[in-house]
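User: Show me a protein chain along with its predicted structure.
Assistant: Here is one chain, sequence first, then structure tokens.
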Amino acid sequence: MIVDNVRVIIENGTFSAEDAQYYINRIKKTSKFSLKKVIFNRSDAYLDIRYSFESIPFDRIRRIPLKKESFENRAVNN
């Protein structure tokens, strides 16, 4: 189903469009990115919500060692 231009998938349990709209509004309030898809998985004990965005810009993730290591101790180029 589509709710507020967001694809909604209900994997397990019963869930109404009004319930989905409530959680979509809460996600949109806390995020600055455009919401693409929300997956609801409901059981008796919990509600699992997974969501994805249209696009999230990022430049690059770099790994910087916190301690000095010699070149021999590195896993790369061994």
